[in-house]
Structures are given as C-alpha cells and as structure tokens.
Design goal:
Blueprint: E1 16-20, H1 24-34, E2 55-57, H2 70-78, E3 80-86, E4 89-90, H3 97-113, E5 124-134, E6 146-155, E7 165-173, H4 179-184, E8 189-190, E9 194-198, H5 201-215, E10 219-221, H6 226-238, E11 248-254, E12 260-266, H7 268-285, E13 297-299, H8 300-318, E14 326-332, E15 335-338, E16 342-345, H9 351-365
Parallel strand pairs: 1-12
Antiparallel strand pairs: 2-13, 3-9, 3-10, 3-16, 4-8, 5-6, 6-7, 7-9, 11-12, 11-14, 14-15, 15-16
Length: about 375
Amino acid sequence: MERPHNSVARTPLNSVIVQRRSKNKSYRQSYRSCLGAASRFSLTPALTARRLNTSRRAPKSHNITEKVNPEHLALLSKMEWKLSYVTPLYQFRHTQLKSYSRQLSAFIAAEKQQGVAVEVEGSHSSFRVSFSVVQGMTETDHDAETVLIQIHSKPLFAGQDEPPRSVWSGWLTCINANPDYLRSLPKDFICLPLFGSSGPEGLTALVKSWFQQNFDCCFGPLELSHTSLQWLVALWTNCHTESSIQHLKMIWTLPVVPPLQITYTVNPQDAWELWSSVRKDRQEENEGREQVEEGGSIDIEEVMRFMQGLKSHFYRHFRLDLSAGSLKQVSTALGSAKDSGRVKISNSRYMITTLTLLTECALLKMPI
C-alpha cells in the first residue's frame, strides 16, 4: 500500500481504498475474537460536561411524507448541510416569519451596499428571503417547529420572465431534545439548537449575523465526534431490513507520517449479519432482566462491539489496526456524515432518527 505524500492539512490524493465482500462468517469470527479486548442567557465559555446518551431507542421508520410538505422534504433530503449549533433565541416568534423575511432581505441589501462581499455565482441585483415553518417534524410537545429559510435571487441580466432561483438554504430544528433542559429555559427563549446551511459562506455569515443581532444568540461549528459517527454507523445499519443501506462506507485516517487514509467498504448484508450477532448476544446477556418495549433500545456497548468487530475483521485481512486511527466519514444509502459537520440525510423515513442524534450533539456543544 502506498502512502500519500501530502501534508497533514490536506486530504491525500492517493488514498488507500480497501473494499472487501467477505463471507458473513468471517465478520462474525472477527467480532467474537475481539470480545475479550475492549448574553441574556448568562452564557459562559465553558462547554457542558454532559456526554452523549449511552442508550437510545432503536430507529423506527417514520412516514413523515404524510405530515411534512413534500417540497420541504425534498429540499431537506437532497442537499448536504453544514451544521452549526445555536444557543436559545430570545423572543423569536414563529408567528412573525413574514416580518423576519422582510427584515433579513433588507439586512442583506444594506450589507451589500456597504461593500460586504456576497459570493454568489454570477451578478445578482437583489436577494429575497423567505421564512417558513416545516410542520410535522416535531416529536414531543416540547419541541419547537422546524424553521426553513431560503434566499432567492435573480441574475442581473436575466430575462423578465425568468423566475428567481434559490441561492442559499438553511434551517433550524429541535427534535427530541432533552425535556428537562427545555423546561428550564426562561419564558422568552426558544430552543432551535441545530442549524444547517447550504450555499455561499458569505450568505451564511450574513444570516448568522442577523440572527445574533436580533435574537441575542450565538452560533458555533458543530463537528461530529468519533463516537457520534459510530452511533450513525450502528443506527443506519439497524435499518437495513426495512430500507437497504446498499453499502456501508467508512473513511479512516491513521496517525502516521505521511498520513494514511483508508476507505473501508462493507457489503450491507455482511454488516447486517454482524450487527444482528451483536444484538443477539446482548439480548442473551439481558435474559432474566426487565423486558423492554418492542424494538428495544441500543446501548453504547453494542455500538462499540459492532465497531470492534468491523475493525477486527479489517485487521485479520490487512494487518492494519483501525483502532489507532479516527473515523472521519460514514455513508450509506440512508445518509452520510463527516467529522467536519457536513451531513446529508437521503432517506426521509429515518430523518427523525438522524436529527434526534444531531440535536443532542448540538445541545452538548452549547455553552452552559
């Protein structure tokens, strides 16, 4: 295997790609062999000491197409989104979205007049903003409705009948957030902690600036930890029998000089068989204990066992220990996620499952 001779700051151009379609038995042997090893809100700069939940409900298919506007759903599931966390918004009102649309449009126009660069392909005369509620996404009475923001613009030399085109999209959401935290918020604050954006960085910066000035909130980058990505691997694999994941692709980096990047692609049925084996072993260990609801829950130990099985299988074939590296990216037919905080949710049936985890990640990154 050749190692890329690139600097650490750049993605290697000649990454090592490993794709194996080994027999299910091989994965199960690998798994079993490893079990013995294993503002107004009084914000402060400190991060919360909490960690991701160690157990969560097994993902279930949500047919949200019956509740959510198809156009909104299509937009949410076709783009890759750059994630940020947002602190609670002061005096934000869902009933004032038309007013917010006008205010943000005027703000962008004023900033542009003052010479702020708005990097949009081609020349554009003006920008029109629209705020809308994505109804049908909430899971509990405590969740605030998701808000969708779109910025449209018409090229400077466009024909009179040519409609404005979307140049930027974003949303704020709160799915299955910690109810104790939500109840603890002062009366005038609303929690929409997860922010996704797609479009020019200049427009993203202007949108964030407007929110910060009007709702006394703060934005911060939401990178996805190694553990969060492993949770997504397990949660998406768990959905395979209902919606085929088609593939399980992981990108790892190993801390060597020069850096080594490994693409590890697993046959979906192999991944499912390994996951089923982990789940079965866990259920046998829990025999005699209190019964859980149908579908049950998934705990962090199962996730770690599953990942260790995948890593042990890889080591048996290539003598490379992925445990020494970091998981940087995971993708299946249901979605993809990168440690840099870029996410795509390709299957609307499991959008709620994915957004629940991401909402939790956003709340944990938030200052106290």
